[in-house]
Design goal:
alpha/beta; Rossmann fold; 6-stranded parallel β-sheet; 22 helices; 39% helix
Length: 570
């Protein structure tokens, strides 16, 4: 920009942020506009970046995080200062925990006033507030440092184990003016932001030796394996070794769920009986019982592939740690693997097949039942059949029973198509993930939401309608948190703590914003509505009436929800 005189061209912090993002191939911003970043959003849009404006910063952050997971480039979330920053920080912390690359850029108040705690507008020491919840946090104090600050944020977000990075931009830095020449020289194009980290050859040999000696080996694929996009090598290793595999929820589809070596239908038995376990981008956290008995054999040996050295021995001794990026580690394993070197025991494979068949038969009986009103299984059976005919569709899933049962019912045949609450198991990610997936891929998204989970971010259906995204939201409405038939133990007439409105007509919400609403009381009407909504490629919401008595307390993890021995019971 110039003032029309002979003075040299000038630029400012707003322009430099946009220039730095574009120079590094970041083309989309998810955010909520306001002081002091409104003009940054306007300028980004005017400069060719896509700006997706949300109704709440947490949803914007969740969209950025899942975009980072799908693209392996950091998703960018833009927020205002203080409360808006804190709203976005929830998503940033979740991204870091899950290993999703994301950058939260927040405007902030005058440093001189904030540091003396003199009461500035939305005063908060955002940098130090962010540090415990992000992979790294940086503040830019001069406009000529914007280029290097954005570069550091990008490299930090995607290198090693990916995660969330906070970038603090004080209002005075955004508005500061420098010469265009100085600004251009200050920009940095990041080269090789996520360099390969090759495993040591001896670790590959050790890992294969552990698997070679095993009678009952098992491979567990985590979302780190899905993020790596080393799909061909992972499949080749699984199939050449013949080792049964178990996918974690967001790794489903790396190999099809109906692959003959998939033992998801015999999960408990496989975990308890395996004598050697190879973890590929999966952590021995609470989702895997911390690797402890009785869920696991106390004598099982573990091989672990992870880019983070400190992940090893976090819960169980790791006999063969392989430290490196997943793609490089899988390539090295394949290159070293001899033909026929690893042979799982026939008794092991035979018993797994028997267990799979028995459990599949039980599941089939649940899916073919047609109770009135619908339960989770009958509703999910209808959705499953439709999604099988629409393989390009992304599936977003959250809730308690809605999540747990859908994970077992709806099989995936392609990688990175199932997006759910991940490591923390948090609710409220659904609408942000659905929007991020739709924007990133351009493909239709079906978000299967528990009625409680939907409430955390339901206003984002207006965002979906405003941008005309091909998102179909299916709400499993059983009128409650876990279930809708709880009773108030007290003397007043208030609803019980877990009860929501049974008569809620969620489909009317999307109609208020111009989308298409459906009400489904049986599997047939649910199937018809979903087929029509997907074919339209327009925003839609299906209010799916589920039996209020369907569901269990806390889904599959009721053991984590302690109950008072003295509280009154129903």
């Amino acid at each position: 920009m110039a003032d029309g005189t002979n003075a040299p061209p000038m630029t400012d912090g707003f322009h430099l942020v946009v220039d730095a993002l574009q120079l590094n191939g970041l083309d989309t911003i998810y955010g909520v506009a306001g002081i002091p970043i409104t003009d940054l959003a306007r300028l980004a849009q005017a400069s060719g970046l896509r700006y997706i404006g949300f109704r709440h910063e947490s949803s914007a952050g969740n969209a950025a995080a899942i975009a980072g997971y799908l693209t392996r480039k950091p998703g960018v979330c833009l927020t205002v200062s203080a409360p808006g920053f804190l709203n976005g920080m929830v998503a940033l912390a979740n991204a870091t925990t899950n290993g999703f690359p994301m950058i939260q850029i927040s405007g902030s108040s005058d440093r001189a006033i904030v540091d003396l705690q003199q009461g500035d507008y939305e005063e908060l020491d955002q940098l130090n507030a962010a540090k415990p919840y992000a992979k790294a946090a940086y503040r830019i104090n001069r406009p000529e440092d914007i280029g290097i600050g954005v570069a550091r944020a990008i490299r930090t977000a995607v290198s090693g184990r990916p995660g969330g990075v906070y970038l603090d931009l004080p209002a005075e830095v955004l508005g500061a003016v420098v010469s265009a020449e100085v600004g251009a020289r200050s920009l940095v194009r990041v080269v090789d932001a996520a360099p390969r980290q090759l495993p040591a050859p001896e670790t590959i040999t050790r890992a294969l030796e552990v698997l070679e000696k095993a009678e009952r080996p098992l491979i567990i694929l985590g979302k780190g394996a899905a993020y790596a996009q080393a799909d061909d090598d992972i499949r080749a290793f699984v199939e050449r070794t013949g080792i049964p595999f178990l996918p974690m929820s967001m790794a489903k589809g790396l190999l099809p769920d109906d692959h003959p070596q998939c033992v998801a239908a015999a999960r408990s038995y496989a975990l308890a009986q395996a004598d050697a376990v190879m973890l590929v981008g999966a952590r021995l956290n609470w989702l895997l019982g911390h690797g402890k008995s009785p869920q696991w054999s106390p004598t099982a040996q573990f091989v672990q592939l992870d880019i983070q050295p400190t992940e090893m021995d976090s819960n169980r001794a790791i006999a063969a740690p392989v430290v490196g990026d997943i793609a490089s580690s899988m390539a090295a394993l394949l290159a070293t693997l001899g033909k026929g070197r690893i042979r799982p025991g026939s008794a092991w494979l035979g018993e797994l097949e028997k267990r799979k068949a028995v459990n599949a038969q039980r599941m089939a009986a649940r899916l073919t039942a047609n109770p009135v009103p619908m339960d989770f299984h009958s509703a999910l059976a209808a959705i499953k059949d439709v999604l099988c005919k629409n393989p390009e569709t992304y599936l977003v899933n959250e809730g308690a029973n809605t999540l747990d049962i859908a994970r077992n019912v709806i099989g995936m045949r392609a990688p990175r198509k199932r997006l759910d609450c991940g490591t923390w198991g948090v609710m409220g990610v659904g609408m942000g993930y659905a929007i991020g997936a739709a924007v990133t891929s351009g493909q239709p998204v079906v978000a299967i939401e528990g009625d409680s989970a939907f409430g955390f971010s339901g206003m984002e259906i207006e965002t979906i309608c405003r941008y005309q995204l091909p998102v179909v939201t299916v709400i499993f409405n059983n009128g409650g948190i876990y279930r809708g038939d709880d009773a108030n133990r007290g003397a007043d007439a208030d609803p019980a703590p877990t009860v929501l409105m049974k008569e809620a007509r969620y489909e009317k919400l999307i109609e208020a914003f111009g989308g298409k609403g459906y009400y489904a009381a049986d599997p047939q009407s649910l199937s018809r509505a979903l087929v029509e909504a997907l074919a339209s490629r327009r925003p839609a919401l299906i209010n799916c009436a589920i039996d209020p008595a369907a569901g269990t307390e806390s889904g599959h993890i009721g053991n984590l929800n302690p109950q008072s021995a003295l509280a009154p019971r129903k």
